[in-house]
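Duplicate of #3305? Posting structure anyway:
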């Protein structure tokens, strides 16, 4: 036991609750308190992989991140996060500095690990299903790296995959490439991830529940013990089940969230046709029913992001594959498409034509606290505006760089919300960034040529906006809805 040099002191202070760090003669950590330190590989360093890797490293595990993207590996190695995500950069810098986390594109280093997480992407392919090529190549790489490893390794799939993938795709590849048999040579678990962008670290550290799917009780129990040590008294409810259920749970979860959003957007569309009605009051009231719950009842111009649209399409394609018409999900998707197109319909109605009109777009990211533009409603809105020959000026506190790589010089980029509004004939609030709450009715009145404002996220206070004689409309807000309920 060696706890008197500065590295150990740092570790002692950092871990909460403080733990004893035990090292061998080469100063390698062997144990922290009563939790065994594991060597862990994480394949795929996107939101899920990086958050998983850094949270494990933060608890004192020795983590190797493996990614085939050399640029990403180089960046991470220098402590630079590949995307904006709260807390990620500070966790990354610390883990790299203190040598709990290293990054490589060499998958053979997985041979050293006790645990391997698969966190690679499963993008949408033509027809809505998922492309398994990254999963297949990670499974091949893991299998090859295990050929020479004598000891058992537990392989954990965190990537979102349709039911049957672990048993019918991953396991056969691992067995073929490693020359070992599951469950004796290695263990395989499905452990879907539910983290939200913008809360990746927080959701990894405090999950609502942990799902462990496996065909093998021994592997499932090992993973459950690993999480019991990791979370201690804060361990969330654990559901241990078959691979197929674990895989379906992830899709059911996201499809349900998408359904909630399209449901409240349906109510919003009805509310807009009732003078004085306001969907936010209705959402607040129904959310107080414990059977409904308040989350995911914010009406708006539709859901986007890397998960909800993709998982909905994948579940629909899977339903078709197994002979079930997922018509409910088809409607959820159709309602969402319609929501995304609402700002264009609105502006056309107000301005007659969009040709040559200056339109300000407030917010680009698919939601606040991220610079992610994947499946963001802003993309389709801007594309439509450009098609109609409008002059578009956008402002987003984080996503400008990514937007430039998509739209280039087709649109203009402002450095503040106020700047984007200058001389505009119409403005659409697309992402509910907190800073937009500071915009006053006077900002719109003074800066815009025509003060026509559409709040696509219900961020602005309708009473104030309408009193100021702006031409103000918002999702789910009935015409002439005064006074607006306050709570
Ligand atoms: C989602 C799931 O929440 C997460 O569990 C899963 O692991 C990945 O997909 P994320 O894509 O980060 O996470 O975003 P989320 O916060 O869920 O929002 C998804 C979309 O729904 C956003 O476009 C958001 O604006 C929209 N949304 C969400 C609404 O329109 N209304 C709401 O009430 C909630």
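Output from current build:
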């Amino acid at each position: 036991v060696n706890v008197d040099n500065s590295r150990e002191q740092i570790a002692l202070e950092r871990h909460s609750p403080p733990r004893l760090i035990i090292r061998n003669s080469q100063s390698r950590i062997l144990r922290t308190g009563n939790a065994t330190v594991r060597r862990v590989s994480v394949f795929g360093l996107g939101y899920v992989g990086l958050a998983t890797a850094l949270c494990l490293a933060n608890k004192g595990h020795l983590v190797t991140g493996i990614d085939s993207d050399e640029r990403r590996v180089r960046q991470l190695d220098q402590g630079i996060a590949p995307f904006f995500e709260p807390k990620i950069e500070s966790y990354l810098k610390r883990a790299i500095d203190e040598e709990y986390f290293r990054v490589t594109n060499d998958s053979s280093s997985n041979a050293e690990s006790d645990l391997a997480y698969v966190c690679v992407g499963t993008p949408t392919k033509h027809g809505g299903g998922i492309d398994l090529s990254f999963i297949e190549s990670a499974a091949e790489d893991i299998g090859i790296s295990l050929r020479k490893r004598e000891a058992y390794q537990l392989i954990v799939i965190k990537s979102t995959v349709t039911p049957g993938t672990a048993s019918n795709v991953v396991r056969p590849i691992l067995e073929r490439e490693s020359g070992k048999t599951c469950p004796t040579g290695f263990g395989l678990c499905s452990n879907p991830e539910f983290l939200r962008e913008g809360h990746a670290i927080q959701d990894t550290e405090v999950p609502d529940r942990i799902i462990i799917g496996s065909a093998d009780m021994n592997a499932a129990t090992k993973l459950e013990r690993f999480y019991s040590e990791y979370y201690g008294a804060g361990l969330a409810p654990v559901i241990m089940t078959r691979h197929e259920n674990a895989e379906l749970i992830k899709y059911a979860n996201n499809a349900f969230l998408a359904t909630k959003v399209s449901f409240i957007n349906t109510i919003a569309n009805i509310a807009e046709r009732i003078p004085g009605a306001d969907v936010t009051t209705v959402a607040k009231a129904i959310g107080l029913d414990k059977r409904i719950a308040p989350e995911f009842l914010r009406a708006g111009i539709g859901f986007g992001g890397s998960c909800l649209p993709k998982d909905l399409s994948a579940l629909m394609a899977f339903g078709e594959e197994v002979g079930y018409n997922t018509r409910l999900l088809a409607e959820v998707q159709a309602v969402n498409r319609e929501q995304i197109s609402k700002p264009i319909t609105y502006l056309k109605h107000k301005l007659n034509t969009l040709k040559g009109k200056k339109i300000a777009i407030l917010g680009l990211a698919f939601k606040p606290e991220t610079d992610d533009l994947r499946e963001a409603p802003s993309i389709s809105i801007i594309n439509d505006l450009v098609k109609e020959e409008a002059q578009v000026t956008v402002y987003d506190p984080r996503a400008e760089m990514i937007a430039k790589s998509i739209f280039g010089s087709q649109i203009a980029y402002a450095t503040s919300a106020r700047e984007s509004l200058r001389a505009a004939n119409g403005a659409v609030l697309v992402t509910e960034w907190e800073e937009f709450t500071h915009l006053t009715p006077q900002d719109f009145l003074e800066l815009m040529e025509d003060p026509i404002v559409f709040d696509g996220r219900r961020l602005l206070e309708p009473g104030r906006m309408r009193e100021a004689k702006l031409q103000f409309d918002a999702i789910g807000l009935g015409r002439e809805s005064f006074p607006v309920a306050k709570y």
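Confirmed duplicate; merging threads. The radius of gyration is 25 Å. Residues 1-18, 481-487 have pLDDT under 50 and may be disordered.
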